[in-house]
Automatic annotation (TrEMBL):
This is GTPase Era. Residues 123-126 are annotated as: G4. Residues 7-174 form the Era-type G domain. Residues 15-22 are annotated as: G1. It is a peripheral membrane protein.
Amino acid sequence: MTDTPYRCGFVAIVGRPNVGKSTLMNHLIGQKISITSKKAQTTRHRVNGIYTEPNAQFVFVDTPGFQTYHKGALNEALNNSVKDSLANVDCVLFVLEAMRLSAADREVIALLPKKTPVILVLNKLDKAKDRLLLSAFIEEARAEFPFTDVEVVSAKHGQRLGELLDKVRPHLPESVPLYPEDMVTDKTQRFLAAEIVREKLFRYLGEELPYEMNVEVESFEVDGSMFRIYVAVLVDKEGQKPIVIGRGGEKLKKISTEARLDMEQLFDCKVFLEVWVKVKSGWADDVRFLRDFGIN
Ligand SMILES: Nc1nc2c(ncn2[C@@H]2O[C@H](COP(=O)(O)OP(=O)(O)OP(=O)(O)O)[C@@H](O)[C@H]2O)c(=O)[nH]1
Ligand SMILES: [Mg+2]
């Protein structure tokens, strides 16, 4: 028997918005813990996803897409979160969408650390059909930074993720595991519940999504083998409530049903979910819309 040392370390996943960072992390760890959507700026918080093998533990750090276009407090906070993540990890996955290398990608490249191994991950391989163009693109991307290695994957279709793990593993330091082997994230169930509702809001509100909308878990109770979760969607103005609720409560009903199903899968138990909308400043006009519309 060979004595393989146990390895454990942190791996940041960075890139411009929408390249598929969260999708990649979810597929690497085999659980959907980080929300994803077609829209840019889906991830707002750093989320650690843990993947444990017999001889290694990978702690992936999913980061918000690095913002270049809109300045403002929120974007600055998101960008600082990316920079912080880069400072304290053992390896970095820099994600590019295959065949696309833009100014926004280059802004992230400018932040990449010089002393930490950085692996270039070309995602959305399924969209790049022409092998010749793909290898030319890899050369073009490699010319931008001294990447330690490169891998081409499709996060969404789970392609070549084993190969990617093989390239990351040697960069993890020798260490005992930092988390229990059955743990998939360091985030609480409460946090994950709020994120799941946020994902459905992204999905169903389209372009109408109020930019500064927040989601807050007001109560999270364990009731026997079931979770009872009460979530408030906080909007800025009274006029934004109907956007979230939809005609006859239809949108909110869809959002809460889908969120409940995802929660049941992730938490592996029955969930009672109530979602309601309120205006941030005007606590007095809180309305329990779900109750009004008979949604549960
Ligand atoms: N075709 C294809 N689409 C993908 C692949 N990976 C991710 N996507 C899609 O790309 C979109 C963005 O994915 P996310 O994982 O939310 O991207 P992100 O980089 O985390 O985005 P932000 O959190 O906003 O920075 C979603 O619609 C995904 O389904 C892939 O391998 N192939
Ligand atoms: Mg994301």
